[in-house]
Write a structure and sequence with these properties.
The complex is a heterodimer of chains A (409) and B (170). Chain A is mostly helical and 409 residues long. Chain A has helices at 10-18, 20-29, 43-62, 72-83, 87-114, 123-145, 150-161, 171-178, 185-215, 229-237, 249-274, 304-310, 315-328, 332-335, 349-369, 375-400; strands at residues 32-34, 246-248. Chain A contains 16 helices and two strands. A two-stranded antiparallel ribbon of chain A has the order 1-2. Chain A starts with 9 loop residues before the first helix and ends in a 9-residue tail after the last helix. Helix content of chain B is 27%, strand content 28%. Chain B has three helices and eleven strands, in the order H-H-E-E-E-E-E-E-E-E-E-E-E-H. Chain B starts with a helix and ends in a 5-residue tail after the last helix. The chains are: A mainly alpha (409), B alpha+beta (170). At the A-B interface, helix 7, helix 8 and helix 13 of A face loops of B. Bound molecules: FE2/S2 (inorganic) cluster.
């Protein structure tokens, strides 16, 4: 058996059994972060904190929610909203959190693209991040079903119909996913399970993986500079803090994270208390009705861009375009062939590409919200969708010819 | 001796792999069956509609398996179609009222004798053929059996079988 000394305090007692001091060193006090990063790098912690809020508020909602097509609507809109003390608070936190979390994810993603943080050595960070994005999307969609309003029902109908695979007419598959001919009780209970158990577990696992992928290649920095982390860390440890290019994650960098989170939560709770309506679709305050479609079906804002890519094409082509759009960003580390890890403003054409991508996605989002009847907007939607699809091959070409940037220190 | 030990380990590895594969396939099959529609859901899949009271050019929407069913008695000036259900001298258009694009419910426009889907602008004529927009195929006809002036949905009668064989519906 291993040798144990009598511990002088709790920390020592734990350290002998759990190696807590080593853990603290590896994960906190000697986990090195470049000095040269701005507030955009705090979005990771902001996301973790928002996820925490979602889990917490979700637990309270879970205690009164009823996963039954006859009871679900009232359990949310009557019981939780007007009977349960402060039930409205949890619902507003949950609703606002679910919407805002995607805004932060998109900022986090575009920060990564702008600074090239997905490149050589950091591919796994990007891939695990994209997997998280997919898991969050599934989590959001399954949660959207639960209040069982009109939008829930018809979003469920339309999205599950995508699995018929266009002309493949795979209705057996669609009915299997639903457990019924239309979204019904079986559908609601299985999405409930996914939303409160399976997907959160997957998300937590992926978050751990995402953090893990960061530990060895280390976080990128504003200049994309290659830092010798060992050398820089030794400088810091020997007291030459000014000369060192790095700081320890805890407590030094964490204090910046916490400050950004403070500002963020002021905005977050402003929305929760005064402006929660933006996250609540009015159509979803009508109970689900399988015999009446709402005039205009659209998803929440964070899915609009990919929904708009689906729309301008015929059924099969639309499905294929939609599929490509979902998967395209995964391949970013492999289609960007440039040798540079550098911010976009130093990479010439790549900068143009970056802004076109961002503006195109905003345009798709805006157009996706408009009713499909206007011909001009439909045309703009088509152009934006084609632009998105073309951006992948264009990136391959422009980065193939990108010259290596000579870096001054 | 060493060789022998290696052989034993390989064997144990293979045995474990085989057991795991059999168990895994079994578990997957059980999981798949668990998500199948329940027998009670399937058993509730029949609906009887009486067509004798239907009025010309007025759309009736019935419910079958949770889905809306369009029942439209055609007037004399409306084109006959091989997808019509003929009962005596009356012709009916009966279809599942879900757009074949992504499943919205189209609305019936009485004067123009056509169905219009608000979701992405798809249109169908009074026989359910797509005439405009993204829908890739005609409105589907549910399995039916003619029983006097009544229609039993969910059961495959000879008339429906004929339409199926002719590829008029899926
Ligand atoms: S669902 Fe009818 S046109 Fe798209």
């Amino acid at each position: 058996m291993a040798h144990f000394e009598k511990a002088k305090n709790l920390n020592e007692w734990l350290d002998q059994r759990l190696a807590v001091n080593t853990l603290k060193r590896v994960l906190n006090t000697e986990y090195w972060i470049p000095k040269d990063i701005n507030f955009l790098w705090a979005m990771g912690m902001v996301l973790a904190a928002t996820f925490g809020m979602l889990v917490l508020s979700g637990i309270f909602l879970l205690m009164y929610y009823k996963p039954d097509t006859n009871l679900a609507f009232d359990s949310v809109n009557y019981t939780i909203m007007s009977e349960v003390g402060y039930g409205w608070l949890w619902r507003h936190i949950h609703g606002v959190g679910a919407s805002i979390v995607f805004l932060i994810i998109y900022i986090h993603m575009f920060t990564g693209i702008y600074y090239g943080s997905y490149k050589r050595g950091r591919e796994l960070i990007w891939l695990s991040g994209m997997a998280l994005f997919v898991a969050f999307s599934a989590e959001a969609f399954s949660g959207y079903m639960l209040p069982w309003g009109q939008m829930s029902y018809w979003a469920g109908m339309v999205i599950t119909n995508l699995f018929s695979g266009g002309s493949l007419e795979a209705y057996g598959l669609v009915e299997w996913i639903r457990g019924d001919y239309v979204p019904g009780d079986a559908f609601l209970t299985r999405f409930f399970m996914l939303h409160v158990l399976l997907l959160p577990l997957v998300i937590i696992g992926l978050i751990v993986l995402h953090f893990g992928t960061l530990r060895i290649p280390h976080v990128n920095n504003q200049e994309g500079a290659e830092i010798d982390f060992k050398e820089a860390a030794d400088l810091w440890k020997s007291g030459k803090k000014k000369e060192s290019k790095v700081i320890p994650f805890s407590p030094v960098f964490l204090s910046k994270d916490v400050f950004v989170m403070g500002v963020y939560f002021i905005l977050f709770f402003y929305l929760v208390f005064y402006n929660f309506n933006f996250a609540m679709d009015p159509v979803n305050f009508d109970p689900a009705d399988g015999l009446k479609t709402p005039a205009h079906i659209y998803p929440e804002w964070y899915f609009l861009w990919s929904y708009e890519i689906l729309r301008p094409f015929g059924k099969d082509a639309g499905l294929i375009a939609f599929g490509i759009a979902q998967a395209a960003l995964f391949f970013l580390p492999f289609i960007d062939r440039s040798p540079n890890v550098a911010p976009a403003h130093k990479r010439g054409l790549f900068q143009v590409w970056f802004w076109v991508l961002l503006i195109d996605m905003i345009a798709l989002t805006a157009l996706g919200k408009l009713p499909p009847t206007d011909a001009t907007f439909a045309l703009l939607g088509k152009i934006s969708a084609w632009t998105f699809l073309a951006l992948g091959p264009i990136l391959v070409i422009i980065t193939m010819f990108e010259k290596k940037i000579e870096k001054g220190a | 001796m060493k060789e022998k030990e290696k052989g034993r380990r390989d064997f144990m590895g293979m045995a474990l792999g085989a057991c795991a594969a059999v168990g895994g396939v079994g578990a997957l099959y059980a999981a798949k069956r668990t998500w199948d529609p329940l027998p009670s859901v399937k058993a509730a899949g029949f609906t009887t509609i009486d067509l004798s009271a239907a009025q010309e050019n007025v759309l009736n929407v019935e419910k079958w398996r949770g889905k809306p069913i369009f029942v439209l008695k055609k007037s004399a000036d409306m084109k006959a179609d091989e997808r019509d259900i003929v009962i005596g001298s009356d012709r009916f258009h009966v279809s599942i009222g879900l757009c074949t694009h992504l499943g919205c419910i189209p609305a019936y426009e009485k004067e123009q004798h056509k169905f219009k889907c608000a979701c992405h602008g798809g249109e169908f004529d009074a026989s359910g053929h797509q005439i405009f927009g993204p829908p890739p195929s005609p409105l589907e006809i549910p399995p039916f059996k003619i029983d006097g002036t009544k229609l039993v949905l969910g059961e495959t009668g000879p008339e429906y079988q004929k339409m199926l064989d002719a590829g008029l519906t899926v």
